[in-house]
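Holo model, flavin-adenine dinucleotide. Inputs:
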Amino acid sequence: MDFNFTAEQEMLRDSVARYFGDHYAFPQRQAVIRSAGGWRPGFWRGLADDVGILGAPFDEAMGGLGGGAVESMIVMEEIGKALVIEPYLDTVVIGGGLLRRCGTRRASELIGGIIAGEVRLAFAHLEPSSRFDLANVSTSAVQDGGTWRISGLKDAVRSAPFATHLLVNARVSGKSGDRAGLSTFLVAAGASGLSSREYPTVDGSRAADLKFEGAPAELLGPAAQGLDALEAAVDEGVVALCAEAVGVMRRLLADTVEYTKQRRQFDAPIAANQALQHRMVDMYMALEQSISMTYMATLKLDRPALERKRAVSLAKVQVGKAAKFVGQSAIQLHGGMGMTNELAISHYFKRATMIESELGSVDHHAARIEQCDAAA
Amino acid sequence: MQLEFTPEERAFRAEVRTFIADHYPADVRAKQDRGLELGKEDILSWHRIVAKKGWSVPAWPVEYGGTGWSATQRHIWAEELQRADTVPIIAFSTNLVGPVIYTFGTPEQKARFLPRIVAGDDWWCQGYSEPGAGSDLASLQTRAAREGDHYIVNGQKTWTTLAQHADWGFFLVRTDPSARKQAGISFLLIDMKSPGVTVRPIITLDGAHEVNEVWLENVKVPVANRVHEENKGWTCAKMLLAHERSGIALVAHSKVALGRLRKLAAATGQPGCRLADDPIFRRKLTEIDVELTALEYTELRFLAAESAGKAPGVEVSMLKIRGTEIHQRINELTLEALGSHASLRVSRATAHASGPDAVAAPGAVGIADTYFNMRKLSIFGGSNEIQRNILAKAVLGL
Ligand SMILES: Cc1cc2nc3c(=O)[nH]c(=O)nc-3n(C[C@H](O)[C@H](O)[C@H](O)COP(=O)(O)OP(=O)(O)OC[C@H]3O[C@@H](n4cnc5c(N)ncnc54)[C@H](O)[C@@H]3O)c2cc1C
Ligand SMILES: Cc1cc2nc3c(=O)[nH]c(=O)nc-3n(C[C@H](O)[C@H](O)[C@H](O)COP(=O)(O)OP(=O)(O)OC[C@H]3O[C@@H](n4cnc5c(N)ncnc54)[C@H](O)[C@@H]3O)c2cc1C
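Output:
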């Protein structure tokens, strides 16, 4: 049992932190998210060329750094600390995770493209009535001559406006809710038969509602491979999101502690009030418990499915609750200043709030824990 | 990073688990199973069995009887004791006074007291708190005046756990009333049979006799029984705060309690609509399971840091806060699961009676009292508010 990072992992963290420190200061970020494109291709290129982290979790045989879930965790935590909006989770963690499981030559080629910074993915999975259930997919894929064609609606697809390709989960058989009959397809951004309504998200990123009307697609894995691979890849995404939340919460707590020490009312720093001190201790404990759960779930990603799912959901419940508590407390303790759009704190709060329900809310994951217990 | 314990550590766990299973006294287990009150001899008998094996003071230096175990081994041992729901190894002697004596005591004090603590020959109680000195312990008033090679001690201690069993007590007393609070305190070992020592029971809300008032009236204590220098008692008291914390988070203890609660919920209510099937109750169990798992891995993180040479700091206050809150929550849910059966108060001794004296829900006997009793967890050992003050200051720099 060991929760220490290796020297290489510490170096990875340092170099990522330094790169974000140099290129992702809060004012820079705000300028970028307000810009027309909403992201920075040059920054993404730097992730490939300067820090080389786009290959962090991939095998060396594929051109990656030979890391794994721990490396993704490290990068994602730094992403959380800097509020990076570029699609690392979608491209490297979830997209990369799905591609690794496809096992085809085409998939390896795409992984090479990810590592080089040329392929950026969005994960087009959920539909207007899916809620959080991965099996609730009715988008269909039919074979037309040699070409697969996709039809259906995927909504609120994060990072779609930044993506070169979309990973689309569609049905080759069965009906929405069935575990069988799902396959993963690749659709090029701008493909014929694909229309997109793009919009900014409240936490500074961009998303799109995607309408597929016979859009041409490449089948990536086995046809009708079902949910297992998808669930495994999404679980990696959930844990990565937990790590991002940890980074976000670290900043929420640190900024709040700092602010309450500086802000004076009643002739004393407001941090002198025990009510606020205890609130901040509770924030600290919620954060520490979240760190522990993120480690635990990261290290259990390779366990058998039932154990993995339970571990991941335990972590997401903890992190979802903590994100709410730490975020709300941070705003409260900043008083009126917490309500402004000017301070970084409110942007960390918005990201924390969106993470609560991204890839499954607290209630969704609590129910999944109970399903695992019933099946055990 | 990795979650698994090493093969050696797993073998060690198997070894201690087998030892406990093979040697735990059957009569004590039977009393526990029936919810009967445990006496001094019950607790000491287990301590002596463990001492014979050489494991009663694992955290001590080897020269005084310690095992030389790693932090992880000590953790495993504490966890297995909790898992097996044994009576405790007497903490007041092994975790509290023993380390003070081997750290600050004279060679004579070490030779006289330590072997008897290790063996479980003496029962020790802790005389710190006073009616006017609780959280603010340094405001204590019990006075020890020097007369030749004796101190004459006068004052009142309170909340003294199981002083009715005690052969010896370790006391914080004021030796210099003119010095500032912490500065005038000394650490004395007092023979509880000394003339002038009176132990009076305090009955707690669950009806138990667990704590006492200890009155000290002109008690003559040899100066040779003072540990460390005069007026340096606070140093001894502070040293204890940093001592052995294995098991403080009560994780294994709470897992056992949660396991029992799950069984209870699965057996409560009509077949087909058991309490365990009730989505609302089930969600409460899920939520506490999440909190308990988070605490478990937090404790393991501290342990890993300690194994890597980073001694745990005040952060362990978090283990105390979360551990007690979670344990209390499980007690609370157990009470909730019992519904109106929880109101049953019959003596534990008759809980399992048969015939006309039989009670309908013997499993409910004592549960409410346990719930009431366990409210103490967040009060003693530094209340949870005091622990939050410590974290605010030392970790957050507030
Ligand atoms: C949306 C909005 C609209 C507003 N509209 C108006 C308006 O129209 N007119 C107007 O005059 N004002 C207005 N206000 C200001 C509002 O009254 C103040 O925000 C409020 O009084 C708190 O003061 P503060 O923001 O300076 O926070 P601070 O006083 O700096 O407090 C920061 C944090 O410290 C806590 N705190 C401070 N002192 C103590 C203490 N002694 N003990 C414990 N905790 C303490 C606070 O509870 C808070 O959590 C508005 C504020 C907002 C957010
Ligand atoms: C079952 C039991 C067994 C015990 N056994 C022993 C024993 O063997 N030996 C021994 O010496 N003592 C023992 N104690 C005493 C225990 O250590 C004290 O109860 C504890 O230190 C709290 O002191 P108090 O009861 O005087 O409460 P107080 O200090 O009066 O506190 C009352 C409340 O105020 C809060 N409070 C106090 N100060 C602050 C502050 N600065 N900030 C915020 N909140 C504060 C406390 O958290 C608590 O909620 C025992 C207590 C119990 C309940």
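Chain B has three domains: 7-89, 124-231, 251-394. The beta strands of chain B are 124-127, 143-147, 150-157, 168-174, 185-191, 197-203, 209-222, 226-227, 269-270, 273-274.
Archived with the compound record.
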